[in-house]
Amino acid sequence: MTPADSLTPATTPSPQHLVLLGACETHLEVLRHLSKHPISGTPVTLLAPSPRHLLPAMVPAYVAGQQGLQDCAISLEALAQRSGVRWLRGSVVALDAHHKSIQLDDGSYLEFDWLSLDMGTVQDRDFIETTIPGSREHALFMQPVDAFISLWPRVSKMGDARALRIALIGGSAADVEVALAIRHRLPNAAVTLVCSQTALDANYSAKLQRRIQAVLRTQRITMLQDTVTSMSAEALHLGCGADLACDIALLTVGAKPPQWLKDSGLALDKDGYLALDRHLRSISHSRIFAALDISHQVDCTGPASAIDALRAGRTLAHNLRAAVDGSRLKAYSPSSMPLTLLAYGKHSAIGCWGSLTAQGRWVRWLKDWADRRLLARFGQPDVLR
Q1: Rounded CA Rg of the chain
Q2: Which whole number is the average pLDDT over 83-95?
Q3: Which class would CATH give 125-255?
Q4: Does the model's pTM come out above 0.85?
Q5: Residue 379 near residue 79 (C-beta atoms within 8 A)
Q6: Are 211 and 374 in contact (CB under 8 A)?
Q7: In the predicted model, is pLDDT for residue 304 greater than 50?
Q8: Which residues lie closer than 8 Å to 143 by C-beta, 6 or more apart?
Q9: Does 125-255 match 7-121+257-325 at the fold level?
Q10: CA nearest 95: which of 19, 15, 16?
Q11: Please, what CATH class does the domain formed by 7-121+257-325 belong to?
């Protein structure tokens, strides 16, 4: 060893920082895997705007008054602590994929070496206002769900005092279930589901559509195949030229990826969604991965269900570890036959798996069991008792 060598300090590579941006079900599953198999030598930060994640599958139960808010949410701080992950509360203002930097709403910056995105879509209120004038002033937006949940008790209290005219503008499975939940909570309300002119979600089988339409009729929910062209304080103005009297308008349409993705430098598709390869990795930045909600997967035909989110979470957890370690990535494969479960009334539900459909008390038992299992999976084992 030369004198010069003896004066040269030994250098150790700095730890690779992994940031999990957003906390929907896919990242919850990643955290669950990290609690069992941490990535050695790699600090992980979970960044989310809220200290809890409200499970979408359980929002209708809350709206129906069948579950309390504490029974529908996952504590992110507790889950992160069990997983050995730092939890940081904040919202994203900008993402610079090239310089590996995230700007937060408090003006601070968070640097990363590896990044995974799972924050879901958002409703662009300015854009929706251009397509449905009056919506910003008169509609109750369903996203972000925490904002809607905070306002729902006021709506239900109004509904207890007088019969409300409530319209839900949408047509997805979640919209149908929320409409049915509103009917259960407010039996005297006039509830209308305003779908597009193509009726319910085109991904539904004909059998499932018939079952849904029959249940809507028996639950006294009106379904209109029309568009809303504008809205005022007391009515929705429809494409057919008619007006629909309305006290409360719930809006689910217009969901898009976050606006800051446009200037992130990440490759996007024509609709502004993140472009991913089959490993859930950005096609333009190999150190950035993402969940399904802000991407259009070639093999996915509809919104990611909880089952698809968990499958993606398992793949994402493997690939994040493999990417950091330099080992082989795994391709994501969505479920070929997703399970749809829609609750209504006190003890009933509709189920669909592939070409099979069913409804009744046993389907509701299955849905309630699946919801409890999902809660228990992420840290609330007492819900199974």
Answers
A1: 23
A2: 93
A3: alpha beta
A4: yes
A5: yes
A6: no
A7: no
A8: 120, 121, 122, 123, 252, 255
A9: yes
A10: 19
A11: alpha beta
